[in-house]
Amino acid sequence: MMKNVLCGLLVVLGLTANAQNEKYQFYLDLNKINSDLIQVTLTTPVISEDKIIYNLPKIVPGTYKIYDFGQYAMDFEAFDKDGRALSVNQLDKNRWEIDNAKALAKISYWVEDTWDADVDELVFEPGGTNIEDGENVVLNNHGFFGYFDGMKHVKYEVNVTRPDDFYGSTGLTTIKTNGNVDQFTTENYMDLVDAPIMYNVPDTVTFKVGNADILISVYSKNKSATAEELAKDIKGILELQKDYLGGTLPVDKYAFIIYLYAGASGSGGSGALEHSYSSFYYLPEMSAEQLSGFVVSVAAHEFFHIVTPLNIHSEEIGDFDFINPKMSKHLWMYEGVTEYFAGHVQVYGGMQTPKEYLGVIEEKLAGASHYKDELAFTELSLECLDKHEDQYGNVYQKGAIIGMCLDILLRDQSEGKVGIKDMMASLSKEYGKYKSFEDVKLFDKIAELSSPEIRTFFTEHVEKGNELPLADLLNRVGITFKKDVKIQEISLGGVALSFNPETQRLFVADMSSINEFGKMLGYKTNDEFVSINGVDIDMNTVQEQMDQFKKNTKVGDKVEVVVMRNHKGKLKTKKLKGKAITIEKTKKFLIEFNDDASQDQIQLRNAWLGQK
Fold first, then answer.
1. Span 368-385, pLDDT tens digits
2. Which residues contact residue 217 at a Cβ distance below 8 angstroms, ignoring those fewer than 6 apart?
3. Which domains does the chain have, with CATH numbers?
């Protein structure tokens, strides 16, 4: 059950306003928060029907999950221009039917935030709303503002009264400020939903990348990381992405809106949600150094959504149905190709070595192995809300591998000159922000721009669940692909490790699979790692340190692991010593450069990976 409204007195704003509005005019006052509730008032556009239905979304683009945002609205009332109440019937969680709608002038309701609501399943925070009086307000606009049936394409005006020291961070450029009132305008409801706004005492940085103004905005209650610190890494990856996309960007402004939370995540997750001109991040409070790698990886993915779905999208997305959603069958492109770009840009731009990138491919294949490979990707897309909800995560795994396969195919057909980023650029020119494609015709359009072989690939490996031809495609670029390979690897003892955020150290969490070397060292549960062979463990580079240890250590070498161990309630340093051993393990996927690759294969590989 949601919180009760403590204030029974309804204040209806501006009832004398002209009812013949041709736009929605919403009002919020962030200075009048009551028990994590904000009142929303709307001066309505002119209504020509006797009855009208007002909607808050059941689902919004990018979430691929039913969240019923109407359940967070309460005390819904409607009024004519003289302030007389009109009859309202709530049809379900998200819809209210208003009688005598031709006389309608105002509606009003209270909204509770989603982040700490008392519901069965919390909204994933990047797509939800937050109301912290005097601290922070996150306006994911679909959580506050709705639309009337048949009127999603009417203009929107949102007026926010804020505390004097607050600033509203957003990707919108249509902003007017008068005193402490910010006015945001959009051409339609889709554009409003596409533009989150975060209010708090500002911590922001702005800079240029190519032709675009970039805003970094951070809220961190404990000041664990600042906008200036995070901007350094974000700017680096954006410069690579700008070059990757041909030197210019298809946006004039883009905002990275970052909320760093203390303690545990309410939904159990953290991450980001993309929008056309911004992305919203919900990440744990850590230092900028600790957040760096994750922020770069996630920011790269979210920023690439300026390609799709911003400039390439189906009719199902272009005119999204927020109550009875119709899914597109092209998640392989919206999320898969976007995820592929986010990884590929790093090797193409020199941020990673080609060998490191092969490791990224192996990780994607390992991730995809946990899902149903035989499930056609188009079917997964169409039924990702219900029947195949548990398979949705594969869009970031196999979806990225599909993007890689297409890239190699396109490069192979053009002697390395044309890749998937060029194909996406051609589709952007064909469609763009204001022109949607027909869902059933996209594969044929891509084949028209490329070749029949590409159409066959879509038929066999995206529309059907046939196994991807990885061995053949990777061989074309001089790379070998093997499955279930037995390898010998230097062991760290076979213990499972976890992370202690208080001490910022890895610790032994589970010893059920401890091996001979682990027993020789004498690990104990909760031992916290300090150093290995004299090298202090650095949580910012721990994976690289572990990889170097395994690479540089030989069988029989002396190994010293220093741990902090609890002894009678006190942590004490303990040196653990042993001689290195190898263990045999099965590697599910092994991808390596072929030493016998031909010159043609190497040239194609270099074109694919951006090597000179």
1. 999 999 999 999 999 998
2. 167, 169, 198, 202, 203, 204, 227, 255, 256, 257, 258
3. 23-199 (2.60.40.3650), 203-290 (3.30.2010), 307-478+594-612 (1.10.390.10), 492-580 (2.30.42.10)
